[in-house]
Amino acid sequence: xxxxxxxxxxxxxxxxxxxxxxxxxxxxxxxxxxxxxxxxxxxxxxxxxxxxxxxxxxxxxxxxxxxxxxxxxxxxxxxxxxxxxxxxxxxxxxxxxxxxxxxxxxxxxxxxxxxxxxxxxxxxxxxxxxxxxxxxxxxxxxxxxxxxxxxxxxxxxxxxxxxxxxxxxxxxxxxxxxxxxxxxxxxxxxxxxxxxxxxxxxxxxxxxxxxxxxxxxxxxxxxxxxxxxxxxxxxxxxxxxxxxxxxxxxxxxxxxxxxxxxx
Amino acid sequence: xxxxxxxxxxxxxxxxxxxxxxxxxxxxxxxxxxxxxxxxxxxxxxxxxxxxxxxxxxxxxxxxxxxxxxxxxxxxxxxxxxxxxxxxxxxxxxxxxxxxxxxxxxxxxxxxxxxxxxxxxxxxxxxxxxxxxxxxxxxxxxxxxxxxxxxxxxxxxxxxxxxxxxxxxxxxxxxxxxxxxxxxxxxxxxxxxxxxxxxxxxxxxxxxxxxxxxxxxxxxxxxxxxxxxxxxxxxxxxxxxxxxxxxxxxxxxxxxxxxxxxxxxxxxxxxxxxx
Lengths: 263, 275
Known about the structure:
heterodimer; A: alpha/beta; Rossmann fold; 8-stranded mixed β-sheet; two-stranded antiparallel ribbon; 6 helices; about 35% helix; about 15% strand; globular; B: alpha/beta
């Protein structure tokens, strides 16, 4: 006997976009929808760490009657391309293509984007071109230069981590990579230059940054009423948890509640 | 080469990506099992890089999520985890066979994936080979000698350990980690002998990342006895690498090893066909 994995309609794995290069999982809500949600993933190891949470969020939103598309950028996850081919402009274009794919499948023009970390930065930067109606961003990276410096520091610590390697590895062994993923010089430069600009698209921030981290939400034109502070802080930069999933029921509840309220 | 996404399985509950070489081939297929709870792309996308490289060599592949892991749901059956894993891999073999025409498979698994590959390889007639990365291993007398003796006289190690404990830049997580109790050593040894009797080819690649219980190439023999010297067994110990091959150079060398082992043991008739 064939049984569904969940009470919801099962997610449909698919390839889409030009040349079918992008992988996605579409979760139908089963009923005509007035809005749909595109989940923009972070890049690199943060994408793997958030995978389970994104799946849980997709199911929670579908249970609210909201169709959802998860997807991987070119060079990420199950999409075509090598990790070293990840390119910021291509990520923005992929988010646009994914939004169009979601509109076509859900038969609604109103697409809301959610993104964690660089996924949030991509949602913010691509908002106008992808015609997002609203944004929910979780600890988005607003200052690319500082983010690159943190990744470089973590990569340098990683190669000397006695819990991982019997002997410290040479700097050359760890060059041109961030936490398990090859990176190109162009991506590094693109991220160094990343500075998210204010957007006219209504935006809510889910803030779970460490208390010591500088907040820059005002620079996006987002006032405090649109910032939802979550506890506990998310250990994004903890090398000791590099391969542990990031899970947050608080985040899922907050995002689901926010999107339920959006008329 | 083309990749296709599938929802499949006896309850249509699993998600997988089949990689199909451009040229039709009768080669064995390669099925890649989850490493722990990481979804099918593998740690740092290892499984994507592996399957695409093997596709380019002419091997059809399937990387997929076992029941309740990654994007796969539950089957809804009342089964033990072992029964479930065996049924999941059977479904995966059926899918890959239907898509590529291959009737035999090599299993690939890292860590718990190696344990699952072991479980399935014990009984599934379609399995003709297995690649175990950091699979079963046991602390031996030789391990203890190699582990403790040098530490007693290594001032540098004492200094690094003390410095690290005094000022840990990355404190270790105390969160619980899911793990599976290892099978008894004698059972595993007998299982390997039985697999080899059935004609399976076995490839063991262990890393320095499991130095808390494995620390030298000799330990394969110390753990598993003469069975490890039998034809059909290949062993490699990569001391400098970590458990999940976080550095791209280590990962590329690992993939080189696997590609060579496969081409030596399961040559593709039309090897060299362009992807």
